[in-house]
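hey so u asked for the seq, here:
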Amino acid sequence: MTHQDEGHYAGKHPAGREVNPCIVEAVKKKAKGGNITCAAIFGIVKRLNTSPEEVGFTLDRLEIKLAKCQLGLFGYSPDTVPIKPVDKVPADLEKAIKESLTGGRLTCRSAWDIAERLGIRKMDVTPACNKLNIKLSSCQLGAF
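ran it, structure tokens below
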């Protein structure tokens, strides 16, 4: 969604789709000032044994903004953006990224899998992708 769509997230979903009341309750408990962190969302996903997409849908319907993406892509103030450029991408990380591309892009889920497999932080994958001119796509929550 673009910046002009901000605050109108529900509009990207069919009108008849209903939210799960358990997810609504969990989200409202964790949201602060109309925002909820990516980490808090995935805590809800795990605790309620639901899908990230379902919680993302619920956030959209409630018009709650995602904050502090675990890949560092959005939800930070300009002074606290956690992604710093890198001079060189380790060979194992570059190989893992290139082998995981879908349509020339790395999905959010693949980035998380790479980080887990290599024992690195999720946010270490993003600057590597930036250095390799590879875009991240398909947020598990539906944000991008």
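The two ends are 7 Å apart (CA to CA). The helical segments are 21-30, 38-48, 52-62, 91-99, 108-118, 122-131.
lmk if thats what u needed
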